[in-house]
């Protein structure tokens, strides 16, 4: 579903690349956890999946990244909205409308869907994320965990096959974090969504993962090795 072939990312010339000759395959319908110390390149890897690297962040990418067969170099992020949904650490950065319901609808606006289809997807997503009772609430009045679920919902309504999340629970208390992770696990199991999640707090997330990828510090030696570990449940 997600494939990296000999991928290197370098932000500045004459410096060490952040990712070096990386090969990686993330299979469909798994929740894959990407761990590694701060600064090792986790966000860079996620941004390469969503196409932000190389289209928006600066940096040069060599090699090939494909998501559901689409090469991210020739498909900028706006052409990947129905394939990859991206959620960052700070959900507030995502929000463009006032209420929960409007926010869930917004992500579909550029897809040219019929109004009835859009309404149905909003309803499904409200139910799936346990947000139905909050539908008319201004997002500004929600808790951190509720906001993070809205951010996830807003990228789910286009029905992406892949969801990429950069430390989505970092601002949350343990119980709100569990709610968000349980939602992600349900997406994987019920809908077959592929979830790639970066986290530096391994202990919080490992029990939800099908696979754990360790990204060691690229400067410790080429190439950027990714070690796969199957968590013991
Ligand atoms: P992590 O998510 O593991 O903390 P990042 O991918 O954010 O790692 O950062 C890896 C390295 O790449 C860091 O040295 C960081 O300074 C550098 N980097 C990340 N994004 C950019 C950017 N847009 N421009 C320049 N350097 C960047
Ligand atoms: P429609 O376009 O009629 O809404 P799709 O063919 O896009 O339906 O989706 C098929 C089914 O997938 C939907 O009935 C819905 O239950 C389910 N679904 C809901 N949310 C998602 C999602 N985020 N990703 C994939 N499938 C989803």
UniProtKB/TrEMBL annotation:
<protein>
    <submittedName>
        <fullName>ABC transporter ATP-binding protein</fullName>
    </submittedName>
</protein>
<comment type="similarity">
    <text>Belongs to the ABC transporter superfamily.</text>
</comment>
<feature type="domain" description="ABC transporter">
    <location>
        <begin position="2"/>
        <end position="233"/>
    </location>
</feature>
